[in-house]
Amino acid sequence: MPLKIALTKGRVEKQVIPLLEAAGIDCSGLKQKNRKLIINTSDDRFQFILAKGPDVTTYLNSGAVDLGIVGSDILTEHRNQQSELLDLRVGQCQFVLASTSDFNFNQPGRKVIGTKYPLITQLYFESLGQDVEIIKIEGSVELAPLIGLADAIVDITETGRTLRENNLYVYDYLDQVSTRLVANRMSLKQHAGEIFELADQLEQVVEQGSASK
Amino acid sequence: MHKVNLPLGTRDEFGKRAQRKTQLIDLIETELQQRNYMKVTTPVLEYQEVFADFDLKQMQTYQLLDNNNETVVLRPDLTLPIARFLSTNNLKLPQKFYYVGDRFKIAPPLSGRYNQQTQAGIEIVGYASAKAECECLLLINRLSRRLLQGKIQLELGDARFIDTILNELSSNQALKQAIKAALYQKNLPHYLQLISRFIEQPMFKFLKIWPRLFGDYQEVQAQVLKVGLSGQARELFEKIMQFADWTSQLPNQQVTVDLSSAPPQEYYTGLTFKGFMQDISDYLFSGGRYDQLLQNFQSQPEPAVGMGIDIDRLVDEAVISANSHKHDLLFFEPAQLALVSQICEQYPELELSLSLDLRHAQRNAQSLGVKLYRLNAQGDLEDAT
Predict the structure, then answer these.
(1) Which of A80, A84, A187 sits opposite B188 (nearest CB)?
(2) A192-212 vs A11-22: helix axis angle to the nearest 10?
(3) Is the ipTM of this complex over 0.90?
């Protein structure tokens, strides 16, 4: 039976394939997948299941897959209870608190915050001792302060370009985000050897990548 | 129209699965009664204070107000109600108890998990000796062989092990809690970052491999011997290994250990054991020693060992054939009631045909592929198929 790996499709998938290849995993099927969602490696050691980030955590929690490759933003927001094995150090970005130039962080009163990440936002403001009203937004969070829906936003940013282009300013930096290798806790017990072998191979690749930077 | 959908996280049970569940519970109850366990049934509702020691961080409870405005909850756990029961009923100890019942924990919405789960379990109260743990391990092994073709792997640990090592390492409570949480979850990047401050300590070699110290007990033993352990942690480790060695001698029993796993609940104080199966994403058996539990309900502590069995999971995995036996039918008229009563006692497998007339009854029997009988003038059964 191959190890089942739920891989977040899109940007994470593109950034992780070179790491997997450097770790000696045949990714030709992944690279020429067309519309296929389940792809086995030629040696049948691994089966990749392409999914959206939040679904990777759902599959992991239910035990439908042994491993998941997903951003730490999603893991935190979904209160991950599975075993996080490795920081793959790709997809690196940063949670920020951002708003328009007239936003006053210390202004009295209950702020309204727009975000895709209500839990992370709540934990951040709780740590500051502030009670805020959170509005969940599914896409283009930057719009919220511009159209008067929220006083500020909590969102992830890689380069800050989208914020700048929309005249938004960073008022605080929260946690850093990167892509992680996560194992279902029972799969880890049942396939410890194979899972740690993969994690160790990837760790070596990640370390070499960091050293060469 | 009335609302017909179920509340989130609940389900109806019916047909073959419900029948298999009843058979499984009967089998476990018979097994326990034969070994002189006393059955205890506690109410589904308890005061919230009963569960003060229960870890509710991840799960929410169903809460209600009684007519005195006190909060009562649908029990999320079945051990704490037994502890409450023992503290108020003056039962002679030592004693072995068992229970079967439902517990209610609100899982994250839309996660596909059920909020009402059936659990069976045993509580062995008043026995301080390791023989109480042995009784639990023997029961898991018996049920594994009887119901699961001996496929259960046992995982042993000790609820005190992590605290013992962390207390030797640091007095910083927040740091110890953070390391413990990272270990429980096997969050390796965070754990390695937290322990990096102990790099100069002799124990660092152990700390570095600690989250990976799980699996086959002999392999773990070999790894620990390489890096070394001292003091009380070593004693606890040797005790776990001793149990692993004893248990591995049971028929069809694979034994693993996990030196960094979370105890099933905060109230555990000694050896812990869990049973799992290949390709099943949760534990089927889970238990251990909790000698301080009763002290929260009464002044006198009592040694206790207990274990829970996840009946819902077990139903899905156990090799039990649901009774699919076909029943022949008996056609009768209401005036023959007394006679029918005698026949039913004589032939308990016979199902009464409730069809309006013989023609309908014959058609029904034919579609079911069973025989149809009726009572003749002498009161005897005759074939009416």
Answers:
(1) A84
(2) 100
(3) no
